[in-house]
């Protein structure tokens, strides 16, 4: 493809190595040109020929780059995104987009004035489990949805060695980490709530950041959405449980993309994005006689590549992007403390 977008990554930790570099390197619309890696040399081994910079300033000074990926610790997102925009680059920002809403508003305003794109990286909209749930919601089979529960849990009782996740700095804690995914999914499904209430907790020994959080989102229709994330869940619950006037939906978190990418599965592998067998969701409705009918939901194929198609379209195509400015600002209104 002609007129490829030349890309630079700000970091090459898990996010850069797993969620960004392989997708840019395998997309015909992008050219992965440069990566910031402060001390290690893993990027050079994985992508020979890619320019390696030891600091962000050098990356931003590279005039050949058109798109910068801000995949650094949460509290740096605003500062680095602003610097990239001022350097004349389009920007893709890892979740959370920023720590507070006011920072996001400033970034959108700056991008508009400079004629650039600043985009939120929300790959979980392309998880197989979420795509299956979204299809059912759009079908109307649940009727008027009254109550919805979205969970993202883990079991990690120890304190992570990653200081930026465990130190009480802006943007730290499980709600910014995993909650941002679920808030974005709730907004994608139901829109921005009219009001919300939040609860936080610290339950691991010596934890300085929240490791439990729940947000109760209220909508004018009467819909109540409960978003919950907990780092001390030994036995996983269903990730999605929705109750409507004509049906009930349950679906576990079954997307395999992160596991596959960590295991070295290539994007070209026929099994990429496919769920393991017998992981279908369950839809319960009533027949004409009032009997409960159970339907297994066919598995969708997860596909983070679609996000990169969206990024390309935003820069080279019609300018639209699947996570819009109102989505981001609405999400941060809920996330910020």
Helix content: 25-40%
* Mean residue pLDDT: 97
CATH architecture of the largest domain: 2-Layer Sandwich
- Helix-strand category: alpha/beta
- Tally of helical segments: 11
> Would you report the number of β strands?
14
User: What multimeric state do the chains show?
Assistant: single chain
Query: In order across it, which strands form the biggest sheet?
Result: 8-9-10-7-11-12-13-14
Summarize the biggest pleated sheet.
8 strands, mixed
Could you list the spans in which at least 5 consecutive residues all have pLDDT below 50?
Answer: none
DSSP strand content: 15-25%
SSE order, as H and E?
A: EHEHEHEHEHEHEHHEEEEEHEEHH
Distance N to C terminus: 44 Å
In CATH, the topology of the largest domain is named Dihydrodipicolinate Reductase, domain 2
CATH class of the largest domain: Alpha Beta
> How many separate domains?
2
Task: Quickly describe the structure.
The chain has 337 residues and is an alpha/beta fold. It contains eleven helices and 14 strands.
């Amino acid at each position: 493809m002609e007129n490829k977008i030349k890309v630079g990554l700000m970091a090459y930790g898990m996010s850069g190595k797993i969620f960004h570099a392989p997708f840019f390197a395998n997309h015909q619309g992008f050219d992965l040109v440069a990566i910031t890696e402060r001390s290690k040399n893993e990027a050079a081994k994985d992508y020979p020929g890619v320019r390696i910079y030891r600091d962000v300033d050098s990356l931003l000074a590279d005039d050949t780059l058109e798109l910068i990926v801000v995949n650094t610790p949460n509290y740096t997102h605003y500062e680095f995104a602003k610097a990239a925009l001022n350097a004349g680059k389009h920007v893709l920002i890892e979740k959370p987009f920023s720590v507070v809403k006011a920072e996001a508003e400033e970034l959108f305003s700056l991008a508009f004035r400079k004629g650039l794109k600043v985009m939120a990286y929300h790959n979980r909209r392309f998880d197989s489990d979420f795509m299956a749930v979204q299809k059912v919601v759009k079908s109307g089979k649940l009727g008027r949805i009254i109550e919805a529960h979205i969970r993202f849990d883990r079991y990690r009782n120890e304190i992570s060695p990653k200081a930026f996740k465990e130190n009480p700095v802006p943007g730290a804690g499980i709600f910014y980490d995993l909650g941002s995914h679920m808030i974005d999914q709730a907004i994608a499904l139901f829109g921005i709530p009219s009001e919300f209430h939040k609860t936080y907790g610290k339950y691991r020994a010596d934890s300085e950041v929240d490791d439990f959080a729940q947000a109760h989102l209220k909508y004018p229709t009467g819909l109540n959405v409960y978003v919950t994330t907990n780092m001390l869940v030994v036995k996983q619950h269903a990730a999605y449980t929705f109750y409507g006037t004509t049906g009930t939906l349950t679906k576990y978190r079954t997307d395999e993309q992160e596991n596959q990418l960590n295991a070295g599965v290539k994007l070209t592998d026929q099994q990429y994005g496919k769920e393991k067998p017998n992981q279908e969701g369950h839809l319960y409705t009533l027949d004409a006689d009032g009997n409960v009918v159970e339907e297994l939901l066919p598995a969708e194929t997860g596909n983070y590549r679609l996000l990169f198609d969206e990024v390309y379209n935003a820069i080279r195509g019609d300018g639209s992007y699947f996570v819009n400015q109102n989505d981001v600002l609405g999400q941060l209104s809920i996330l910020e403390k």
